[in-house]
Amino acid sequence: MTPHWTQHLARALYDGRAAALPESRLDALLLWLSNPGNPRAADLDAAIGHIGLSRLQASERAYELLDQLLFDHAGPPSARTLGLTADTDPTLTKQRYRRLIQVYHPDRHSAHNDWATRRTERINLAFSACQGQAGTASGRASAAGSSSAPPS
Asked: Residue 147, Cβ neighbours under 10 Å: how many?
């Protein structure tokens, strides 16, 4: 029997290996961190408890893994900072941005306000960069589809 995705995610938290965190489940982890009372987070809570981690331990490890995945790369903030690729649909980009802001907002981390502020600044810069890329791409697409000369 193949383990459920929640077991894979719980194992990634237990092992502390970002490579073991399935990118497709990043939103589920963000939901679990930002809204623990959400019924969709209950299965992950159960898997984490089954593996022997407390919610606090799992949360700490989740932030460590997210730091590895999203913030430990060189260069300016980009789609990668949001855990996405440059060609991700703008609607999904906005959804991921909102979830990350919920998770990292400084109001949620009063004891670590500077840390959270640095994260939200990078998230905001990454989202702005993605919006700029989407605007540029759509501008190029409409220009390529148009046979008229640019206005003078």
From this structure: 5
Q: Within the chain, what is the greatest distance between any pair of CA atoms?
A: 67
What is the C-alpha separation between 34 and 40, in angstroms, rounded?
12
What is the rounded CA–CA span in Å between residue 143 and residue 122?
A: 31
d(CA 53, CA 61): 10
Calpha distance 88→96 (Å, rounded): 11
Task: Yes or no: say if 136 and 144 are a contact pair by the CB < 8 Å rule.
Answer: no
The predicted pLDDT at position 3 comes to: 62
What gap in Å lies between CA 75 and CA 139, rounded to an integer?
25
- H or E element at residue 139: helix 113-145
Entry pTM: 0.81
Q: CA angle, corner 77, sides to 34 and 137, nearest 5?
A: 105
Who wins on pLDDT, 126 or 19?
Answer: 126
Residue 4 near residue 53, CB atoms below 8 Å: no
Return the closest-CA partner of residue 101 out of 126, 78, 76: 126
Q: Is the pLDDT of residue 147 over 60?
A: no
Average pLDDT over residues 54-75: 92
